[in-house]
Records
---
Amino acid sequence: MNKTLKIVFMSALILAIGARPALSAGNLLIKNGTILTVTKGVIVKGDILVLNGIIRQIGSNIAAPDGVKVIDASGKYVIPGIIDSHTHIALAGTNEGSEAITPEADVGAVINADDTAILTALSGGVTMVHTMHGSANPIGGPNVVLKMRWGKPSEDLLVPEALRTLKFALGENVKQSSRTIVPGGPPPRYPQTRMGTNAIIRREMLKAKAYMEEWDRYNKLKGSKTPPANLVPPRRDLRMEVLSDLLRGKMVARCHDYQATEALEFMELAKEFGFKVQCFEHAWEAYKIADELAAAKIGLSVFADSWAYKMEAAEGIAYMAGYCAKKGVLVSINSDSSERIRRLFNDAGKTMKYGGLSETEALSLVTINPAIQLGVDKIVGSLEVGKQGDIAVFNEHPMSAYARCDLTVIDGDVYFDRAQYLKEREDAAKQAQAPKKGGRP
Amino acid sequence: MRIRHHLYLFPLIAALFCLSLTATADVSPTYAIRNAKIVPVSGPAIEKGILIIRNGLIEAVGPVDKVKIPEDAEIIEAEGLIAYPGLISAHTNVLLDDPASRPAETPPGAPDVLAGGNVQGQPASSADLMAFKILKPKKATLDGLLRAGITTVLIAPNRGIIQGQSVVVDLNGENPSLMVVKNPAALHINFTTNRGGYPSSLMGTIAYLRQSFLDTEHYAACLALYAKNPKGMKRPGYDPFLEALVPYLKDKKPVVFQCNNLEDVKRALKIIDEFKLNALLSHANEAWRDAAILKKAAIPLLVTLDFRPPSGSMYIAQGEDLRKKAEAEIYPANASNLAKDGIKFALTSFGLSDGSVFLKNVQAAIKAGLPKEEALKALTIQPALYLGLSAQLGSLEPGKIANVILTRGELFDDKTQVEKVFVDGILWKF
């Protein structure tokens, strides 16, 4: 080789090495997969490029920029990360069950980033969850939306773009119908009936209105030219402040219910006080009021099956999710569990057989629909340029009964890689079997 | 040797006897500890020194050729022994009267029946409970602590969420009034729940704590307004719980948060920031998991030598083998990791059953990488500073309280024995 040419070649090489960033976080190219965008159709043998956590390009034959990790998805299906609209994982405690009205009890204060259910969720392609206060109380508490960033500190799991939601619950759980009253034990808690549940929620809303008015009066007097000498500020009440936020439209209601009648009554309450019901949860009789829900733009976050596990779920039907979706209700399939969370795609697939939804419609129930319900559809829920790089790769079409999640990506970082996990497991088993140094064989 | 020793101490015993009868501290004898190696902690060690104790205080410390032994002093020959300041455990629950025997208190005001509550449990707040009032010193416990070299402890009530107010005592006998160094020392808060009542969940506890401080703010504001201009204003109702909280919120007296895991540390920091509290973080045996936030917050840490992983920890969730490994290898390195990250802390015996476990665990922390001199500081000048007692305690300097231990062998070494202990200048009899 000519000496000058050699120098030029070498310096180019050195420059190239110098300019090459290390395999940095948030950058990923997934190649040659069948891309199910959910909102923009299907791309066969497509590529998807994520840079700095954001999807930058979707198409064919995308070249990997320097330093970007490439994953071959030949023969696989690439979908948006699955979103669970209703679960209780990654929390230190679910219910403030001592009292009936506890909107001050915020699950955001007890996020548990060490919960291994996060790993379980990742193994099923779940990248985001709405983790909620339990259903022990008519008014439970605020919920949070988390990304499943396993290994990150709790505050880094939060999704700040999400809607603020407040948990309500109706029916058997809150009237404690399955609780045995023991002589000498704790007295039964009010409410004990569905009418009592409605009444106590209504009473709290009236209290919240009075609370808001009290503060308005105080602020007006304080701001006046001659405020009274002994003007005492009202007591700040965390309970009432959360309800005030709901009444001011800064939060939306997510209401656990089963029977159609109690749902309709709750909708009347929402109309009376002017707060927004974002979704009914579980709502096994929602098919009876699908038109009313669609007209009121109230969504549903429900199970795919396994109804009739208690009296108030007795009139549930297999066709519920699919039927309501076809009626124009925004439906999502939820897990409500740290175990079902790994097979939400299976549950969504059931609506194809029971309800006749298309593949894309069924997949929407665990991707774009929950994203809309949580107010995060601008950033996740489908594979579109500009959205966050939350992606799951499946061996089969995710609506197939044989589907299995192989890879889960959040913000362009791999959080679950089935092949790697299996290898690590094998290595650990080998290590455990190997005779210990200095120990007996 | 032994007999001579006892005869020699006879006047002292007599003096102590008188002391306990008259309950005055001004007759304690004068001692000259001679020929000991002296580790003052506040400065370099003195290879062969003399330490004079008079009237419960350190009168002089220095090399043998610099300090004159007063004529009235009883000489303690300490050739081959090392003198250290008495150790301070800045958070304990020792010497308390059986908590179960305390009568249940009910919060003021009639319960709101329609609130939908079925509140049955204890009240969550014992803000007005003073540890001093439930002290019950026992010789056996005192012996155990003193044998481990601990001469000063902070004693906090140990039940509920807002647990009450602690007291700092010198372990100089069994008369609480003569023991007190500082009372009240701090308000104590634990991230626990109120079984059977409100709050029954951790998220409820956090709301309850925030509401309590908000209520205190409101209460104090109303009282201040009323004090200024009572005429024409309805007097505010009296609330003993809120009344007890006012100095901690308004006058910034110290509040100790018991942080049972890393998340508790973050929860405490949020509340401290919201209400601008003058706070200390106790327990904190998972502090190593996020040194960055602690460095940023710069809040005094009272780190326990209890190495048990917190309940609900992933080390417990994954079986007994991992739990044991964590307790033996991971958690003992907490202090050394903090030291490496340049974070200051005091060590405490909080949660440990007795003095021997305490010593064993200090050794484990040292084995895990904590420099011995850091361990010593974390049990002497560091806690003295955090408790606002730097002028009185924490080092061997003239004018400070005469809490002195004499050891054979270096403190925290395997076979080292604490041979003599002076508390408030009084030689303790094991």
Note: The domain at 22-80+381-417 of chain A is CATH 2.30.40.10 (Urease, subunit C; domain 1).
---
Amino acid sequence: MNRIRHIPSMSRSTSVIGRDRGLQARMLLTMFLLGLLYVVFMGVLFAAGAGFGLIVAFAAGLLLVQYFAADKLALASVGAKEVTPQEAPELHGMIDRLCVQADLPKPRVAMMQSEMPNAFALGRSPKHATVCATTAIVDLLTPAELEGVMAHELSHVANRDVAIMTLASFFASLASMIVQFSFFFGGGSSGGDSDDDGPGIFAVIVVSMMVYAISFFLMQALSRYREYAADRGAAILTGRPSALASALMKLGGEMQHIPKQDMRSAEMNAFYIFPVGTKDSFMSLFSTHPPMDKRIAALARMESELQGTAGRAVPVTV
Amino acid sequence: MGLFDAIIGRRKIAGPAPDRLFAITTAYITLETEHQISTRGVAAIVFQPLATGDFERIAADMEDVLRGTGADSGSTIETSEDSFGYRWMIVRDPDVEDLAVGINAVSDQLAIDGYADRLLCAVFAFQDAAGAPIYFIYNYKRGTWYPFSPAGDAAAQERATERELRLRAVIGADLPIEPELDRWFPLWGIPI
């Protein structure tokens, strides 16, 4: 027993599971790099001239639509429907308790008829959030495991991951839009007639491509960090890291037997508990979720922290 | 939880808000004398047990302490677990003040041992003149109370919303009532 007991006045800010400063530092660094990239990109666009102002305004309009309507569109497009407490009493009861623990307002609860065991969270803020579980995941997992998964989704809600990733993707979609527009309209007008001082259209296209490529990798990294953070949040919320680890193992095993369905046909900013169809991702750089074994190893470290054996636990090396 | 914490994904569970548990002891006088709402002589504190040796030891100690103080006041104690894995420590005593003292002893002990963030709520059971069940639920995270009154049979999971809103109106001056109605979380299958 090496956990230090605290007097009540101090115990308010302590938690049994500590925080992961390394994770927070990596997350901040990634966000800083993304921001830096975007500032440079905006600079290039402004230097290139007013023609791009229109594209920026258009992209901003799309972003607003996505920000305010994406959750409803996404829910409708995957065929999920909201369930009342009468229709899903256990799920609602579980989420009620987690919301009290997390001091969150109650999100809308939705269920989706699907053979694929999965769960996701949508919505730009805790007040506009929806958490959704598929029928398969409710059948597959034990209540404690399901609680871990729902706590993971609620952590996404509390961390405002949908809003953050939507904002982070704004400039990436702007860059890709510029490249596409340029292929349609820019090609014909090229010539030696450029008498302005700024960079020409060609330079903007090259910069846009580069911005898109770099921001893609940064965003995937950011997304992976947010998954770790949500796992940690779930462990803190439920006090049962091993239950979530066990759920992840079950889902990992299950995913390999189930045919891939095109659940992402609709472009949506959803936070799945488990990525769809990235089982054999050959390069982790391309994936939005960290590899399963690393997530389970991180949860195992939290469990030893919880059990007060962090110092003398067998190091988990996966 | 500030916005910065949300942005960098730092989670910690809120500890308890300033304690307003004892507001029930004065509110009860109003309820009983003016609104014919009487105690059913039972209250419970609900928390999330951790599956660690340390926590189990503390929980056992806590029950002993409670039995010790209960022997003086005549309260009895029992423990049960619900289907969601939360533990209910149930205190029975005809006096609401003694109930609040018992509940407070448990939450204090958890706070001393550094587990205050595991507290979910406290529940006090009452009934109106016609015998309809009324619960007042104390949310430790927010330091607020709200009424919960199930209607009909338990399986239907219907709330007597009108009665709850009326209760808020009559007791709002004495009891700090949760202002956000969407945080009046129901607890189905309350074992008291």
Note: The CA atoms of residues 138 and 146 of chain A lie 7 Å apart.
